[in-house]
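Long-time lurker, first post. I've been practising inverse folding by hand and with some scripts of my own, and I keep getting stuck on stretches where the structure tokens seem ambiguous. Below is the full token string for one chain I'm working on. Before anyone asks, I'm not after the true native sequence, just a reasonable design that respects the backbone. If someone could post their per-position residues I'd love to compare against what I wrote down in my notebook.
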């Protein structure tokens, strides 16, 4: 028998064995789903071999489902597709005719102290001062002692800071922070209250320091045995009028957070206040009108670039996907919108761009796909597990974009997977994945990467309509990954 025929027989046998194994895996996964109490929830599962495009498991995976934070996989992948793995956010400070102009690019990292390596909240204020110091030094080194106006230019994004379908009762929470072309301190206040016996509690060293912000302290400070801590913070709509309420029984060592309003103005006022402390007079802080020309044109040839801050997209992707930070994902969405349209980035145009990029990479408009926001907070997002797994498979991990995408995901023991897969035998493989949760929804999508050089497996497991705890849904997801690894390694 010829060598060619032997090779054909070998390939045929290999495919037949693989097909048999995949059939067994499909049945085993069905058994796992059927014996799991999902509290009236429904699951969709799609697992794909990235080398062949063959579906290994396909269970109720064709219809659109709410992905929760798995939406970030679409957003971040689309941002990489359109911006590239070498992209960097560029925030610029110009001096022009007695004015300073701070030009934003949508960078969400400025003032993110956890990203900067914060390990002790007690040092946050000092770390914030260090982060803004280079900007102040750049102005100080010019010898200028008086600034007429500090302009903030956040027009890389529109001024619709909040997505219209986010829960209206949660928009002051840190995870619904406003999304701006200039961001600072994750666009949230941090409060560290401590008790004053028998009086109103002290608000402590809240950050960022903003003396121009109105704070109405209505707290109590009762420290008796029968008293409890109940401190909370509210912000009036479309303003930075803060009211603190509740009781402070003991010192808070981790921050109580509330989203602030209009991040670009907050950053501008913070920079102006710091300049004044360093002997430089600053007049008003104003926003560059939306009707103005592009920054490079209205500044004119006499503008002097004083400082440039660059943030590689990889840093933003990791905070979005590994840590599931919503502001980062929304900043990616609006930034890819700005690049796609040449106009101020918006939620709507970003969502349209994501859908178009998915169709482009997968070859057709996808059934059940309807992006709404970038982070997955919106319940109007819809994507099928099949589309999401195929989307992951479309990124060749040997290419720069695919490598950057993979490295942005959490692995067991870190990020949002720090408590997941503790009982999973991971010898010979690494799971890179993104988890997701909003009320009634649990999702897990990502890759199984093999140490032996086998091409990765991409998967998406989404559960919707859970009427109770998602604990069983999460356990089911991990069991499915475990049986998949066991089947493919044997």
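-- Answer (accepted) --
I ran through it position by position. Result:
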């Amino acid at each position: 028998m010829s060598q060619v025929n032997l090779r054909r027989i070998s390939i045929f046998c290999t495919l037949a064995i693989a097909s048999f194994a995949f059939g067994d895996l499909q049945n085993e996964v069905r058994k796992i789903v059927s014996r799991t109490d999902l509290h009236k929830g429904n699951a969709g599962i799609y697992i794909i071999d990235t080398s062949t495009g063959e579906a290994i498991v396909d269970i109720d995976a064709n219809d659109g489902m709410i992905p929760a934070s798995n939406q970030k996989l679409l957003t971040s992948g689309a941002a990489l597709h359109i911006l590239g793995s070498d992209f960097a956010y560029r925030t610029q400070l110009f001096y022009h005719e007695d004015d300073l102009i701070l030009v934003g690019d949508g960078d969400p990292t400025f003032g993110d102290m956890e990203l900067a390596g914060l390990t002790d909240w007690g040092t946050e204020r000092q770390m914030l001062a260090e982060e803004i110091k280079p900007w102040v030094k750049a102005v100080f080194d010019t010898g200028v002692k008086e600034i007429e106006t500090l302009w903030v230019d956040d027009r890389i994004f529109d001024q619709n800071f909040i997505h219209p379908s986010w829960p209206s009762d949660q928009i002051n929470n840190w995870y619904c922070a406003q999304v701006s072309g200039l961001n600072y301190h994750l666009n949230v206040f941090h409060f560290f209250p401590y008790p004053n016996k028998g009086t109103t509690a002290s608000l402590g060293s809240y950050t960022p320091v903003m003396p121009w912000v109105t704070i109405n302290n209505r707290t109590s400070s009762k420290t008796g045995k029968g008293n409890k801590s109940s401190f909370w913070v509210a912000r009036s709509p479309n303003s930075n009028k803060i009211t603190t309420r509740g009781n402070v029984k003991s010192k808070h060592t981790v921050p109580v957070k509330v989203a602030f309003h209009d991040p670009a103005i907050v950053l501008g006022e913070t920079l102006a206040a710091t300049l004044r402390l360093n002997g430089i007079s600053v007049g008003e802080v104003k926003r560059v009108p939306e009707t103005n020309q592009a920054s490079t044109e209205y500044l004119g040839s006499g503008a002097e670039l004083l400082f440039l801050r660059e943030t590689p997209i990889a840093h933003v992707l990791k905070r979005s996907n590994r840590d599931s930070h919503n502001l980062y994902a929304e900043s990616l969405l609006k930034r890819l919108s700005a690049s796609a349209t040449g106009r101020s980035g918006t939620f709507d145009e970003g969502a349209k761009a994501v859908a178009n990029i998915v169709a482009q990479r997968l070859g057709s408009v996808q059934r059940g796909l309807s992006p709404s926001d970038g982070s997955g907070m919106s319940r109007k997002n819809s994507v099928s597990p099949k589309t999401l797994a195929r989307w992951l498979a479309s990124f060749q991990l040997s290419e720069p974009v695919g490598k950057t995408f993979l490295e942005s995901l959490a692995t067991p023991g870190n990020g949002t997977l720090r408590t997941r897969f503790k009982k999973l035998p991971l010898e010979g493989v690494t799971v890179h994945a993104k988890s997701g949760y909003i009320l009634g929804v649990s999702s897990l999508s990502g890759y199984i990467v093999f140490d032996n050089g086998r091409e990765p497996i991409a998967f998406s497991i989404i559960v919707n309509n859970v009427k109770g705890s998602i604990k069983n849904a999460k356990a089911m997801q991990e069991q499915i990954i475990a049986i998949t690894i066991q089947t493919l390694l044997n």
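A couple of notes from the structure itself: Confidence is low (pLDDT under 50) at residues 3-17. DSSP finds eleven helices and 15 strands in the chain. Happy to go over any region you disagree with.
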